[in-house]
């Protein structure tokens, strides 16, 4: 992912999410700046078809939605998948799976063995197909992610 991809990413975000989940450009850019080796786009020709923001993190806390990412923790224990979205033109082409596999390689190389995410808008079924399982802890920390938000983990 490059800084120049941000306009296309913001357009995909608007196509994929309701207004309460749209994040400001600065919040997304902070994730790319803090963890450039964990943020990906999928392209066909010159078009960005999907994106994934992820970063090393600690399972004991959740990064805040819509806010700049603070410094990465000194001893991360998971890969936090912050946002994965695919443009309607890219659906049905395994774009999401390609982005996931791209993110897992550097995470494993860094010694991370767990993935963590907050599934929104009913996406928990998608994530379950990719090995993620619902977690019950930290439910109060999900505020801001929406009423249907589900905390999920997996082994990478």
Automatic annotation (TrEMBL):
Query: Has the keyword rRNA-binding been applied to this entry?
Result: no
Q: Which residues form the N-acetyltransferase domain?
A: 1-156
Q: Read off the InterPro entries from this record.
A: Acyl_CoA_acyltransferase, Bact_Acetyltransf, GNAT_dom
Q: Which domain of life is it from?
A: Bacteria
Show the GO cellular component annotation of the record: ribosome
Coiled-coil regions in this chain? none
Pfam families, from UniProt? Acetyltransf_1
Q: Name one GO molecular function term.
A: acyltransferase activity, transferring groups other than amino-acyl groups
Q: Which UniProt keywords apply?
A: Acyltransferase, Ribonucleoprotein, Ribosomal protein, Transferase
State the name under which the record lists this protein: Ribosomal protein S18 acetylase RimI-like enzyme
């Amino acid at each position: 992912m490059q800084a120049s991809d941000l306009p296309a990413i913001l357009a995909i975000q608007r196509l994929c999410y309701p207004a309460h989940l749209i994040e400001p450009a600065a919040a997304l850019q902070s994730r790319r700046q803090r963890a450039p080796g964990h943020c990906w786009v999928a392209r066909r020709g010159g078009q960005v078809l999907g994106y994934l923001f992820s970063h090393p993190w600690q399972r004991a806390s959740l990064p805040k939605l819509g806010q700049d990412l603070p410094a990465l923790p000194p001893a991360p224990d998971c890969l936090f998948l912050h946002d994965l979205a695919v443009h309607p033109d890219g659906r049905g082409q395994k774009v999401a799976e390609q982005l996931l596999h791209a993110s897992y390689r550097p995470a494993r190389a860094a010694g991370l063995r767990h993935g963590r995410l907050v599934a929104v808008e009913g996406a928990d079924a998608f994530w379950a197909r990719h090995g993620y399982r619902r977690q019950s802890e930290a439910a109060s920390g999900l505020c801001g992610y929406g009423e249907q938000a589900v905390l999920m983990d997996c082994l990478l």
